[in-house]
Structure formats: structure tokens, C-alpha cells
Amino acid sequence: MADTNKPDNRAAVDPKLLEILVCPQTKGPLVFDRENNELHSKKAALAYPIRDGVPIMLTDEARPLNDDEMRKL
Fold first, then answer.
1. pLDDT average, residue stretch 6-23
2. Nearest-angstrom CA–CA distance, 3 and 11
3. What digits encode the pLDDT tens for the residues 39-70?
4. Which CA distances in Å does 63 have to 13, 15, 39, 43?
5. Architecture of domain 15-72
6. CB under 8 Å to 6, separation ≥6 — which residues?
7. Where are the domains of the chain?
8. Residues with Cβ < 8 Å from 55, sequence gap 6 or more?
9. Confidence band (pLDDT; 50, 70, 90) for 1?
10. Fewest CB within 10 angstroms: 2, 38, 44, 64, which?
11. 3-state SS string over 8-25?
12. DSSP per-residue letters across 5-66
């Protein structure tokens, strides 16, 4: 059962912003992962975090995607 008192750290991201953002490493498209509040780059195999509704588009801040995440893209 979900804790309804726990704050949801996932902030809404402007859909228009998501349309124009690309991976800074590959310049390829990104996929929004709502569950993890990240933007995924299939070409770079990286997940860029979204903090307080702001995508952090720095490769140093990105984490590598695991095999299961890559299969979902």
C-alpha cells in the first residue's frame, strides 16, 4: 500500500520542453521516464535526472542505464 503522506518528488515537466531537448552527448532523442523522473538516451545509454521540474542535461550528472532499462526503450 502506498504511503499517501509521502511527498511525490516527481515534478511535471513542460511537454514543449521535452520536445526540443536532445541528449547533450549524442544529440539524439530522449524518452521521458515518468516513474523514475528521468530522461533516457538510448544512443548514449544514459539517464538524465529531472530535479524540481528541471532536466539536468549534464553527462556528469547522468547515470548509466542498465540492460533492463535499455530493453524498454
1. 77
2. 18
3. 999 999 999 999 998 999 999 999 999 999 99
4. 19, 23, 11, 14
5. Single Sheet (2.20)
6. none
7. 15-72
8. 13, 17, 21, 39, 48, 49
9. very low
10. 2
11. CCCCCCCHHHHHHCCCCC
12. TS---PPP--HHHHHH---TTT----EEETTTTEEEETTTTEEEEEETTEE---TTT-EEPP
3-state DSSP assignment of residue 73: coil
Helix (H) or strand (E) holding 71: helix 67-72
Copy the grid coordinates of residue 24.
547533450
pLDDT-derived band of residue 23, with 50, 70 and 90 as boundaries?
Answer: very high
18 is written with which cell numbers? 521535452
What is the predicted pLDDT for the residue at 14? 84
Cell of 60: 556528469
